[in-house]
Design brief:
single chain; about 150 residues; mainly alpha; 6 helices; about 75% helix; transmembrane; transmembrane helix
Length: about 150
């Protein structure tokens, strides 16, 4: 089992899973009715989750719903923030593709996002967190040279 780098900031795992479900629904909504407004919403919300969760509508909604699920299960926030930064890149990429008239390309990128959000929501499997752990191990490997 990979060890997760620890930061001082913690996040409720239940809230993260609910946020994944809401993100998945927003991504699927874009795929059903491709409007750049869905992509802009995702972009802005991922930005808020990466840098200041209090401005994230999805974080606020998931926090409300998580209260009904009992005691919080806290985990390190750093990998979740890294995953949100990947969400920024994917949302921005999809928005640029959409604006360039490449809607099918944007849909493909959002389909990957929807899959990652689904994995978080259904199985508590954070793809971005796994990448974060791998990158941290890679960085540490370079830190040990000469």
């Amino acid at each position: 089992m990979p060890s997760c780098p620890i930061s001082a900031e913690r996040i409720n795992e239940k809230q993260a899973r609910i946020a994944g479900a809401i993100t998945c629904m927003a991504a699927l909504s874009y795929m059903a009715a491709p409007s750049p407004l869905w992509l802009l919403f995702l972009l802005l919300d991922f930005f808020a989750r990466a840098f200041s969760r209090r401005f994230s509508l999805i974080a606020r909604l998931s926090g409300i719903f998580a209260r009904f699920l009992g005691k919080a299960q806290v985990v390190d926030a750093a990998p979740k923030k890294f995953a949100a930064k990947i969400g920024i890149a994917m949302s921005l990429g999809a928005l640029l593709l959409h604006m360039a008239g490449l809607v099918e390309g944007a849909k493909a990128l959002i389909a990957v996002m929807a899959l990652c959000a689904f994995l978080e929501a259904a199985f508590s499997y954070c793809v971005g967190c796994k990448l974060y752990t791998l990158l941290r191990k890679f960085e540490k490997g370079f830190g040990k040279t000469a």
